[in-house]
């Protein structure tokens, strides 16, 4: 039973974005009816985070209920594009006080200079910026004109010159794969360069965009030149996994992410994996939310997601920057190598990851005693609520 988690991946208004990436996973998801309607490709909708607004009421409840149950030190806030939400800085500001690390994923276009200054001043915010290439050809699935691409890149240049730690999330597809080397060279040109995480395009429609067999040599050459770009790259074994994914035609290695991170949505929905939205576990805004959270790590879906080899087709097609956590659990990289990335560098985050691995190894070896986990704590909260002591 899980008693602590590393993080909560909180997805806010996932159907609303100021870009319309052709391969957008929200547009391919079947988790909710709105996903099937592909609202992500329509004009973005504005929302407000403020006292009394629907979002202003929901987000603190969702965050607090996950935090109370799993004591997560890391909150990741993503969308859609969260900076479409008026007042979102107020929410991020609150969460930066309550978590050791707040990760903000964004395409960067709507981030203002004053946002960057304030986020940097808190000392515990990491930006994950989505950009496939600094060149229009490689980024053209994300933006559909060179003028818009220029605007995106100029804004990201400003972000990379700020004092914030940055990770670049770059989707590898048949347009971006040939630009890995010049992109890494461009990123190295900044005084405080980001970490560059290239990863395969995913989802049911990925065949339309994926790296072709005759293009894999670009990744092979890039991996061969690892030492030339090491200053902006994750650990070398990351590229062993990446090339295995392409050579095998699918994922063949184990995933540990669902034992560490849960994914929640701003409408209260909970799903067990931040990478693939295909299982609605329940809603944190409902009265029985404690029972929903008690199922984290306990259901048959978790058994499938955490199996030694990928069992679900969606898992076989998945590889993301989150994979460095699994690589650490599989002894492919060290804790130092994992925590060189800004997301995991905080001492308490680092300590929790090491502890979760220790408990996993004890469970695997049969040496760990049963712990009080989420299910039992949920029952204790229900009893306390009945006595009038719950928050």
What's the gyration radius in Å?
20 Å
How many strands appear in the DSSP assignment?
A: 11
Strand content: 5-15%
**Share of helical residues:** 25-40%
| Helix/strand order, N-terminal first | EHEHEEHEHEHHEHEHHHEEEHHHHHHH
Strand and helix map with partners:
Elements: E1 7-11, H1 33-36, E2 47-48, H2 54-70, E3 74-78, E4 85-86, H3 88-98, E5 101-106, H4 113-122, E6 125-130, H5 136-139, H6 146-160, E7 166-172, H7 180-188, E8 195-200, H8 216-224, H9 226-229, H10 237-248, E9 261-265, E10 269-271, E11 282-283, H11 289-294, H12 300-305, H13 313-316, H14 323-329, H15 335-338, H16 347-365, H17 374-386
Parallel strand pairs: 1-3, 1-9, 2-4, 3-5, 5-6, 6-7, 7-8
Antiparallel strand pairs: 9-10, 10-11
How would you explain this protein's 3D organization?
A 9-stranded mixed sheet has the order 8-7-6-5-3-1-9-10-11. It has a two-stranded parallel sheet with strand order 2-4. It is built from 17 helices and 11 strands. The protein is 39% helix and 13% strand. It starts with 6 loop residues before the first strand and ends in a 5-residue tail after the last helix. It is α/β, with parallel strands linked by helices.
Which descriptors apply to this entry?
alpha/beta, 13% strand, 391 residues, 17 helices
In short:
This protein has 391 residues and is α/β, with parallel strands linked by helices. 39% of the residues lie in helices and 13% in strands.
